[in-house]
Amino acid sequence: MLQRMRKTYDAAFKAKVALEAVKGEKTITQIASDFGVHPNQIRQWRDHLLADLPEMFSQRRPHGEKSRDDLEAGLYRQIGQLKVEVEWLKKIAKTPLELKRAEVEPEHPMIPVSRQYDLSDLSRSSYYSLPTGEDEENLRRMRLIDEQFTKTPYFAVRRTPHEVYHETRAPLAPPSEAVV
């Protein structure tokens, strides 16, 4: 069985047929027989022409359509931002980690702090929270745990905090809550 190919019409042909229908000199059926198009198709083209005709003469553009100037302005703005970022990256490219943190400029007019940290491959949390060292009591307890584990490696993790707890008589971890 042969399949019929669907007919496609170019825009000029559709406009010509729709204009004939709008003129009203012939009936839709006569136009359909003259051009070899179904009458329903002619009605659709005519209705489409009549609906879009007022927009052709209006000065405003549709909401979804941006002007070329607006698009170019946005692209130039992006190019400018990328140039600023590249210059900033060149400045800190080969610096060590600690110096990279020092190079971050919180008051930079073009690059926010979050973007600076992204560009320099630094963790942003290191900007907002400064590292704190261990207090003496914590260091002493860790030293005791290390000594106990060195003396008795067969205690493993379960018994080491319990033994250190009894040695220091300080509440490192109560015996009932030994680390599992």
Structural write-up:
62% of the residues lie in helices and 0% in strands. The chain has nine helices and no strands. It has helices spanning 11-23, 28-35, 39-57, 68-92, 97-103, 113-119, 125-128, 136-151, 156-168. The mean pLDDT is 78.
Features:
180 residues; mainly alpha; 3 domains; 0% strand; elongated
Concise description?
This protein is mainly α and 180 residues long. The protein folds into three domains: 11-57; 74-128, no CATH class; 136-177. The protein has helices spanning 11-23, 28-35, 39-57, 68-92, 97-103, 113-119, 125-128, 136-151, 156-168.
Q: How would a textbook summarize the main sheet?
A: none
Low-confidence stretches: none
Range of helix content: 55-70%
Radius of gyration: 39 Å
Order of helices and strands: HHHHHHHHH
Q: Determine the mean pLDDT.
A: 78
Head-to-tail CA distance between termini: 76 Å
The fraction of residues assigned to DSSP E strands is under 5%
The tally of strands reads: 0
Report the structural category. mainly alpha
Q: With helices defined by DSSP (H or I, 4 residues minimum), what is the helix count?
A: 9
Count of domain modules:
3
Broad shape: elongated
